[in-house]
Design the sequence.
């Protein structure tokens, strides 16, 4: 990364080094810890080395690895407790330090406590977590001593492996945090009871780790700044803990929000940018060590604002570093409009983690696949037409142009983005604008020819004489074969989203996939979007950042401003609708709609639509939904007639995205397919 002596004109705080006394961090942006799954697969450390090295080259000041347990019982994945295990980590630390000696790499030590995926898991009390697999084994005095020794050993092994420090996670419902609250710590010895006793274990962990490595080693403590639990930690207790870990030898304190089991979204798309930063700022007034803030800080101007407001000394960006490895350099060089922004969808990162798949990124499928998806200059530059400027066509065009191909995009609409232009209208999906901004800028930068308002046919394409054609023509909505589907009450989801047809007060939504839920969100919405308004977010999710009641949660009934509509979401499948939504975000969509009074019914057979409404059988029993509007969200079919015609005429033609396969299509698959094709052609 370039260096400069004068303050950076746009981001003076982001690009000022942080002096820790014994060492310096080159700027104020760090890559937060994310589990990738790479540590658990063969050859994973080599892949991890390149994954982190790419971010080091991209300018980040400090990298925190995914969580590694200090022992078997704390494991949700790999562990670090022996010199042999430390030797594997050397591959990673050496790769990062080879990029630049002053970029720091820090190992996160994660003892999952009752959330560890092993019956040997341990906790202060034998209380099973709402989301844990096992009842944990209650630690006795020897057990506690063993855990403390294991933390210290892991820290020493991290130092031997070449790390610049460790981050100890003391939040999220993992071991350390379960000591902190009465809900999970019901001990009556010196490790339980008063708050002073309950915080003894995390503080002792820091003290032991410091003793194991001496002064010139970074120790970050991740504090549960707001655990979002009813009866959770008070603001005063958080400050008391921060001061105690500082005194015990922490170099930096990093704020973490929520336990995994809490019902407040903290990183999903509907969370406003930097919503939690003021909580960090309040704790920062009570400690001398630098503080890190995090959560939904996805662009450099947001990081600069957070630092300027005095909320933190360092800003953690985790998922944004998956989305764009070069984010920091792009900011430094004034190329912010080239940043491929994290849209907080969780679809390829956290949803993968929680379903045992390797982490990647919806907008950047190369993330965690750096050694497999490698862009090399094309052997022969070819003239390639891309039909359709949805996510698939755009991702192909940008990747292929970067490799040296001559690209022309034909798009029937007046703007690029495809279905993202529908998605971005849904409250909570405002970030989708960023993806479109990114692609617009890259088209301009790479000199890609863009022909908007141009619906091409086979004759036009054959006449244009391109070497190859990539069909990214997307989908057309499925129209169920149902009596009355052409009745004026029946409205397709595109017309409903674009407001091209009126939607009445009583609405049935036919289809409960992602689009059915998004349409329900859109038509029940009123007032500002919680995703861009922190006060609305607090009201909708029962959070009080300023007052910091116990856990940060108010406990008062949720207040949601909503449209005057009665809405029911229907699906043919048995069971509760919403099961196909994202693993880590589906619950937020379901809960938010239930709180808006939306009803959800499965086991429906549609019979007909007429002047009275939608006639169905619900679990075999006739039922009339007397609605004004039936919005059809019944999935999609591939739009590929043009492909078939071109192939018939002998053109070299490829199919990607929805045009290839509409079933279970999402933007993740569309972009990944496009990227793989662009790297291969
Ligand atoms: P499309 O986005 O459909 O793009 C196809 C493009 O081709 C269109 O712009 C069309 O105008 C153009 N075209 C077609 N024929 C021609 C022609 N003959 N000549 C020129 N141009 C042509 N996915 C997710 O992963 N996460 C989400 O949260 C999400 N939310 C969504 C919310 C809504 C409301 C909607 C509608 C979709 C959502 N999706 C989401 C789905 C996602 O947008 C699609 O999977 C993705 O857009 C598919 O990309 P694509 O490029 O294959 O097709
Ligand atoms: P979808 O998830 O496949 O859902 C389609 C719905 O229509 C289902 O509820 C299906 O359930 C119903 N259906 C299918 N055939 C039908 C028929 N012939 N008659 C009546 N109902 C029928 O598709 P989608 O909601 O259109 O979304 C498209 C893609 O966009 C999805 O794959 C999704 O991943 C993506 N997306 C994602 C998000 C997100 O937040 N992650 C948001 C929006 C869209 P039954 O058959 O049980 O009725
Ligand atoms: Fe961000 Fe979505 Fe990529 Fe995860 S998958 S890093 S949330 S854009």
Sequence:
């Amino acid at each position: 990364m370039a260096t400069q002596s004068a303050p950076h004109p746009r981001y003076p705080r982001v690009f000022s080094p942080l002096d820790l006394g014994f060492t310096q961090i080159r700027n104020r942006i760090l890559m937060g810890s994310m589990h990738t799954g790479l540590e658990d697969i063969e050859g994973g450390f080599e892949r991890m080395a390149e994954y982190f090295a790419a971010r080091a080259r991209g300018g980040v000041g400090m990298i925190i690895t995914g969580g590694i347990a200090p022992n078997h019982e704390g494991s949700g994945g790999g562990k670090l407790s022996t010199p042999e295990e430390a030797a594997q980590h050397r591959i990673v630390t050496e790769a990062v330090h080879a990029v630049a000696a002053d970029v720091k790499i820090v190992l996160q030590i994660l003892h999952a406590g009752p959330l560890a995926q092993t019956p040997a898991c341990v906790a202060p009390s034998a209380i099973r977590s709402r989301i844990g697999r096992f009842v944990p084994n209650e630690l006795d005095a020897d057990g506690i001593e063993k855990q403390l020794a294991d933390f210290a050993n892991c820290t020493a092994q991290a130092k031997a492996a070449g790390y610049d420090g460790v981050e100890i996670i003391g939040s999220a419902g993992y071991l350390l945090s379960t000591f902190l609250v009465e809900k999970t710590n019901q001990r009556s010895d010196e490790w339980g009871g008063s708050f002073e006793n309950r915080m003894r274990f995390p503080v002792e962990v820091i003290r032991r780790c410091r003793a194991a490595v001496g002064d010139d080693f970074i120790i970050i403590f991740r504090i549960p700044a707001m655990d979002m639990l009813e009866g959770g930690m008070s603001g005063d207790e958080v400050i008391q803990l921060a001061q105690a870990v500082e005194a015990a030898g922490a170099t930096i304190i990093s704020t973490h929000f929520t336990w995994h089991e809490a019902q407040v979204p903290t990183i999903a798309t509907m969370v406003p940018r930097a919503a939690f930063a003021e909580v960090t700022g309040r704790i920062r007034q009570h400690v001398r060590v630098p503080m890190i803030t995090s959560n939904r800080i996805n662009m450099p101007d947001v990081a600069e604002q957070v630092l300027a407001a005095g909320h933190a000394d360092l800003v953690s960006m985790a998922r944004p570093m998956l989305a764009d490895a070069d984010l920091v350099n792009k900011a430094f060089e004034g190329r912010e409009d080239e940043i491929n922004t994290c849209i907080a969808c969780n679809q390829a990162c956290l949803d993968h983690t929680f379903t045992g798949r390797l982490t990647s990124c919806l907008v950047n499928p190369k993330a965690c696949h750096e050694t497999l998806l490698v862009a090399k200059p094309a052997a022969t530059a070819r003239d390639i037409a891309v039909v359709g400027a949805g996510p698939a066509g755009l991702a192909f065009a940008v990747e292929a142009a970067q490799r040296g191909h001559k690209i022309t995009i034909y798009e029937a609409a007046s703007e690029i983005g495809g279905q993202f232009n529908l998605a971005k209208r849904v409250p909570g999906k405002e970030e989708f604008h960023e993806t479109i901004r990114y692609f617009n800028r890259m088209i301009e930068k790479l000199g890609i020819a863009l022909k908007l308002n141009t619906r091409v046919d086979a004759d036009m394409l054959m006449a244009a004489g391109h070497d190859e054609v990539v069909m990214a023509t997307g989908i057309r909505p499925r129209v169920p074969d149902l009596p009355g589907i052409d009745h004026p009450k029946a409205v397709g989801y595109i017309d409903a989203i674009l407001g091209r047809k009126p939607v009445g007060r009583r609405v049935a939504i036919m289809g409960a996939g992602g689009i059915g839920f998004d349409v329900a969100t859109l038509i029940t919405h009123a007032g500002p979007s919680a995703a861009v308004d922190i006060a609305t977010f607090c009201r909708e999710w029962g959070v009080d950042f300023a007052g910091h009641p116990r856990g940060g949660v108010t406990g008062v009934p949720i207040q949601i401003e909503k449209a005057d509509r009665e809405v029911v979401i229907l699906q043919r499948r048995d069971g509760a609708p919403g099961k196909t939504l994202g693993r880590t975000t589906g619950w937020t969509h379901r809960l938010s709609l239930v709180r808006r009074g939306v009803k959800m019914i499965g086991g429906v057979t549609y019979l007909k639509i007429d002047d009275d409404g939608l006639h169905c059988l619900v679990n075999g029993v006739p039922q009339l939904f007397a609605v004004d509007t039936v919005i059809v969200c019944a999935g999609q079919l591939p739009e590929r007639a043009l492909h078939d015609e071109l192939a018939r005429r002998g053109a070299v033609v490829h199919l990607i995205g929805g045009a290839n396969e509409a079933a279970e299509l999402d933007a993740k698959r569309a972009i990944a397919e496009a990227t793989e094709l662009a790297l291969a052609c």
Notes: The pocket of NAP (ligand 2) is lined by residues 347, 478, 480, 510-516, 518, 571-573, 580, 582, 633-636, 664-666 (CB under 6 Å). The chain has a mean pLDDT of 96. Residues 58 and 219 are 24 Å apart (CA to CA).
